[in-house]
Specification:
Order of helices and strands: EEEEEEEEEHEEEEEEEE
Largest sheet: 9 strands, antiparallel
Strand order of the largest sheet: 4-3-2-1-9-8-7-6-5
Strand content: over 45%
Structural class: mainly beta
Number of strands: 17
CATH class of the largest domain: Alpha Beta
CATH architecture of the largest domain: 2-Layer Sandwich
């Protein structure tokens, strides 16, 4: 099965075959992948162990890996054909809620309501498991609403910022 995967704006073609082989843009990778809990995954990539927290937000994913947050969209072959037929309309505009990928403590809010932000700009600093994580804008837009404040404890999936 082939997938078209976009990670923070960069697109990759990923293919998984029946034998579990993984190819990324035509290059074979050796990966052992384990689902540990609802949102926690562990992978062994080229003999290096990594863990990732993954949250599904209506077909888009927020992936926290080594302290970096990635905005990921995955389309399988059928979805790719549908997107091509519809002209490729996406969620590049309109309201979007930026949610907490895990429970934690808000260490800083780096934006204010009404502020214009660029894709990749840090919005909130979330401390979780003794690590500070920048929660970044998945696209450019304007901060419509801030749902949290410094010092507040949040649960996973809590709305942090609303962009328009």
């Amino acid at each position: 099965m082939k997938y078209l995967t976009t990670v923070n704006g960069q697109t990759f073609e990923i293919e998984l075959d029946k034998d579990g082989r993984l190819t990324i843009n035509g290059e074979e990778r050796h990966v052992d992948f384990y689902h540990i809990s609802e949102a926690l995954y562990s992978a062994l990539i080229n003999n290096k162990s990594v863990e990732a927290l993954v949250e599904n937000q209506d077909g888009r994913y927020q992936v926290l890996l080594a302290g970096d947050l990635y905005d990921v969209e995955v389309l399988d072959e059928r979805q790719q054909r549908l997107m091509s037929a519809s002209g490729g309309f996406g969620v590049a505009q309109g309201e979007i809620a930026i949610r907490s990928p895990m429970p934690g403590l808000i260490v800083a809010v780096r934006v204010s309501e009404g502020q214009e932000v660029e894709k990749g700009q840090p919005l909130v600093v979330l401390e979780s498991m003794k690590m500070e994580n920048d929660i970044k804008a998945p696209r450019s837009g304007k901060v419509e609403r801030i749902h949290v404040e410094k010092g507040q404890t949040v649960e996973q999936n809590k709305a942090l910022i609303t962009l328009v």
